[in-house]
Design a protein that fits this description.
Elements: H1 2-22, E1 25-28, E2 33-36, E3 42-50, E4 56-65, E5 75-76, E6 85-93, E7 95-106, E8 109-129, E9 148-151, E10 156-158, H2 174-185, E11 189-193, E12 210-211, E13 221-223, E14 229-231, H3 234-246, E15 253-257, H4 274-292, E16 298-302, H5 314-325, E17 330-334, H6 344-347, H7 354-378, E18 392-397, E19 400-405, E20 418-422, H8 434-442, E21 446-450, H9 462-475, E22 482-487, H10 490-500, E23 505-511, H11 523-527, H12 534-539, H13 541-544, H14 551-555, E24 560-565, H15 577-586, E25 593-598, H16 607-610, H17 613-626
Helix pairs in contact: 2-7, 3-4, 4-5
């Protein structure tokens, strides 16, 4: 019987192994998750999980967008890694709740599928402080719109009191505040509450921060041999971990409601002077931002009320206002003004009644909403470094970050015309190119690129370009020839790869492109990308520098359109675009190249470089030609 049992056990293990290999598991997003939008209309959703390594992945999203349209039907995703993992950032319209589905296919058969029922792209806030930031209200509340959720640190859930992550078992202002913001702004709202009852600002400081006198409760601080006191850092660590879990750009603001435990204590040595309160809260804001990587601003409320007989501390309120006036924090509500029936115990308590929780929420909304409206209307004070457009996907391909911008589904074709873009770096493509890429997408042209770092045309990076090319042409249905787009040093990327694979190129466009690495970035700077010393690269320059071999592109019949300024001192026109034109003319292919020269322009963001109808029209035509069967 033992051999039979062993055989049965082996078969059972094999069965489980097969199921595990065929599973599709979504790690992100989570159900009820709210992703912080980065503009009024767009946000970036991380799609991550595991799937059968040899499968083709697709995603679909349904629901109600605040503005714009969701993609219809199933959309392609990058291939899983050999280990079966996948991760991609999807740029989507703000709104929700959305239903997200992902499926894995083997040929025409769906072999695994997963879905998340509630995903939102909207507004996210962290709430910190003491009891009136937590769950000590007289009435437990819940979202009435159904558009508010709460983050526990590891999962999301529909918002209802007591809020996860904060102490106390009663009610909070969070559900009605979320309802009010969701109603006004038309997007889901998420909160991460970390408030702890009866805490002093001293207890929230990083571990090891010293102060002369202890708070009333000492569980989160310790006394030193010197007689001074220091924070244990427990609450600080919890706050930072929650901010980190939400991501560096995952929070709109931190809402700070604290001060009662530092104002007018029975033991006056436990009272915190206003000047020291301000100093310590400034440190908490600064250190938490640095430790978490989050630059989310802080709203600080006016908080010092205890009872009708002790209605507040002018000293502490002045310290809180001083943070507003210094620009360290944004003005929160004056919660000390919420008295009488707004307090529990028939108006005698320090915590809020049900009516007080709702009034507190309304006061917070009056502080947040006008500021948020201004943020959404004005947008960033300077252009964001990277361009984001609807249906844009960012993902890892092998060891390198890559992106794909897909046109709307009704404009796509098989094979899909596309533009291969360089230099793909953290800041590129950028906002200066928005009009161009919008024209490409509107014409049914996809755009893709892969970040190889500062490669300067080194052949060491060609396998990464080829990896993206093979991924898109083999699995996404992209055309076998792409129109290459090289901006500035991207010209080195584009020309060197085109010289290696002219059969995959239907055309080239360039905006003040580099073709001679002696002019930019210079031999010394370029050498490391080639794995050589400057002396070695100098000796082999004719082998590696694209400028010496541009005639091969002409002989391969690759048409080119370039735009360049005539006073460009960073990437000089004669040595770069001018030399490419000369090579084409010497190869009797002058009819295949056109150079547009902008008089009086250098290496800058002049609109004429990025809104050239002639360059865009050529790129669209060549991308379509490259997708012809």
């Amino acid at each position: 019987m033992k051999p039979l049992l062993a055989l049965g056990f082996a078969l059972l293990l094999g069965c489980f192994g097969t199921r595990a290999a065929e599973a599709l598991i979504l790690e992100s997003p989570l159900d009820w998750q709210v992703v912080q939008r980065h503009s009024e209309s767009l946000g970036t959703l991380r799609l991550q999980g595991t799937a059968p390594a040899t499968s083709r992945l697709e995603w679909r999203i349904t629901g109600s967008a605040k503005s714009g349209e969701l993609p219809t039907g199933w959309q392609p995703l990058p291939s899983p890694t050999p280990q079966g993992t996948f991760a991609v950032d999807l740029t989507l319209p703000a709104g929700g709740w959305y239903r997200l589905e992902v499926r894995a296919r083997q040929n025409d058969t769906v072999v695994a599928q997963a879905q998340v029922e509630h995903v939102g792209i909207g507004e996210v806030f962290v709430v910190a402080g003491q009891s009136n930031s937590a769950n000590y209200g007289e009435e437990k509340l819940a979202t009435q719109t159904g558009q508010v959720s709460a983050f526990t640190g590891s999962r999301w859930q529909r918002s209802q009191d007591p809020q996860p992550g904060a102490t106390g078992e009663g009610g909070s202002f969070i559900p009605p505040l979320g309802d009010a913001l969701a109603t006004q702004f038309g997007v889901p709202v998420g909160f991460a509450a970390v408030g702890v009852g009866a805490t002093s600002v001293r207890e929230w400081l990083p571990g090891g921060t010293r102060f002369p006198n202890p708070p009333t409760l000492t569980g989160n601080v310790r006394q030193l041999d010197s007689g001074d006191w220091e924070s244990k850092g427990t609450l600080f660590t919890n706050l930072v971990s929650r901010l980190r879990a939400l991501g560096p750009n995952g929070v709109r603001a931190v809402l700070w409601h604290q001060g009662e435990s530092d104002a007018n204590q029975k033991d006056p040595t436990r009272t915190l002077p206003g000047t020291l309160y301000r100093t310590l809260l400034e440190q908490l804001i600064r250190d938490s931002q640095q430790a978490s990587g989050s630059r989310a601003p802080w709203f600080v409320a006016l908080v010092s009320y205890h009872t009708p007989d002790d209605p507040g501390s002018p000293d502490l309120r002045s310290a809180q206002e001083a943070l507003w006036n210094a620009g360290t924090a944004l003005p929160g509500p004056d919660s000390d003004a919420l008295i009488g029936p707004n307090r529990d115990g028939g108006g005698k308590g320090i915590h809020f009644s049900g009516a007080g929780l709702r009034a507190h929420a309304a006061a917070w909304k009056e502080s947040i909403a006008p500021w948020l409206l201004t943020q959404l209307q004005s947008g960033p004070q300077s252009p964001p470094p990277a361009l984001t457009l609807p249906l844009q996907q960012r993902f890892q391909l092998g060891s390198r970050p890559a992106f794909v911008m897909l046109p709307p589904p009704h404009l796509r074709r098989q094979p899909q015309p596309w533009i291969f873009y360089a230099p793909t770096l953290a800041a590129y493509p950028d906002e200066a190119e928005r009009w161009m890429h919008e024209q490409f997408l509107a014409a049914g042209i996809a755009v893709a690129g892969i970040d190889v770092g500062e490669g300067y045309g080194s052949p060491q990076n060609h396998p990464h370009f080829t990896n993206l090319y093979q991924e898109l042409t083999t699995h996404w249905g992209f055309g076998k020839k792409a129109c290459l787009f090289g901006r500035s040093r991207g010209g080195l990327w584009v020309s060197s790869w085109a010289l290696a694979h002219p059969e995959w190129v239907s055309g080239i466009i360039g905006i003040y492109p580099v073709y001679d690495f002696r002019t930019y970035p210079g031999l010394a700077q370029a050498a490391s990308a080639y794995g050589l010393t400057p002396a070695e690269l100098t000796a082999r320059e004719a082998e590696f520098n694209p400028v010496h071999r541009l005639g091969q592109l002409a002989r391969a019949g690759i048409p080119v359109v370039l735009i360049h300024g005539d006073v460009d001192t960073v990437v000089p026109l004669p040595e770069n675009s001018g030399t490419l034109v000369r090579h084409y003319q010497e190869a009797n292919a002058g009819g295949l190249v056109k150079l547009l020269v902008l008089k009086g322009q250098g290496h800058n963001f002049y609109e004429g470089f990025f809104r050239s109808p002639e360059v865009v029209t050529f790129a669209i035509e060549r991308a379509k030609a490259g997708a012809q069967p």
